[in-house]
Amino acid sequence: MNGYEYAIKMELDGEMFYREQALVNKDNVLNPVFLSLAEDEKQHAIRIKEKEAGNDFLPDEEDMAKTKNVFTDAAGLDPEKSTTEQIDAYRKALEMEAKSIDLYKKLLSESNENKDLFEFLIKQEEKHYNLIEEIIEMVIRPNEWVESAEFGLRKKY
Hints:
This is Ferritin family protein. It comes from Fusibacter bizertensis. With about 160 residues, the chain is mostly helical. Helices cover about 70% and strands about 0% of the residues. It has one domain: Ferritin (Up-down Bundle), CATH 1.20.1260.
């Protein structure tokens, strides 16, 4: 399996994982977040296939901005309704995104002609990683953060 094939498989596995998480979270505000992440992974796989077929890669500015916007959909997340299984799934997603970032950095360092594609994918996966990190923080913070509302210094969330 060459680097392109492995990257395509990782993206499609990511799409499948996020679609499963969308089903698990169908009754809360994370559903559209996971659906959007699944669609991003699907589009990444399509772009890699196109590049493998010899087509030019042109990053789409709309794609670059879309991932951050999806986080606004999670503004009404109720951490009290999150289960241990969900938190484990978020951490697995974080791990998957980290593996994707590592793979694309490796492929970038080994590639002479596909740098634009791999740089785009690294940026996209880093946005996904940061998004999932923020979800995890929102979910676990109520269980870890205790202080006086009158005197404490808290980060906004």
